[in-house]
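Posting for a labmate who doesn't have an account.
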Amino acid sequence: MDINTVIGIARSAGDRILEIYNDPNVSWEVEAKADDSPLTLADRASHEIIDNGLKKSFPEIPVLSEESSKSEIEDRHNWSLFWLVDPLDGTKEFIKRNGEFTVNIALIEKGIPIMGVVYVPEKDEMYFAEKGRGGFLVASDGQKHQLQSKTYEKGQKGVKIVCSRSHMNEATRTFVSQFNEPELVPTGSSLKFMLVAKGDAHVYPRLGPTMEWDTGAAQCIVEESGGKVVEYPVEAKRLSYNKESLLNPNFLVYG
């Protein structure tokens, strides 16, 4: 399995997203999905590029995307190996024009993310990992860096806690209150995971709803950078995939 092919597909999708993002003459065609989350022209365009690219390059591996059809989503129960895709993670951040949106592509095998690619189009940052090979970042200047998460001690002052820019809630505030003078780092999309993966934050509590395509690629990168992604409060249980419901439980990400 050539991760460079996947990286190229993610970059192509990100380039198309940026074309739409930066063109004042293009309508974003924003509409609300059944769960009231937004859907834009950029989501649809990115999905088409990734879906076509993966199916052409890896025809034997099925694709599950946030924008897949209902029948494709139902077929997934029979898959032991598949691509899990969020073509535009952070659509709310895209609409707010703050740049905190990503392209997420994961390869899931028997419920475990074994490959992850997260591309940040606005910053031209490419994060990627394969099981057993470490997590990496190729920055906008082309330099490649190995990622290493950071641990923290109980009672430590100034623990950096990533929180959602668009989904902060009371449960998260209660979690944060147990720390000694914590520093909150509001961030959108799967960039929250990436801050933990590269050691710019210590912990990310997600005490609210997410879907499997929001987390699969980022989880692989965090784990290959030395971190953990576990259900909360059942901290011994790793977040898993292709469950009966695609809705994730609450979870913690930490170094």
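Reply:
Got it, the structure tokens are right above this. Helices lie at 3-22, 41-57, 70-75, 91-96, 170-176, 191-197, 212-224.
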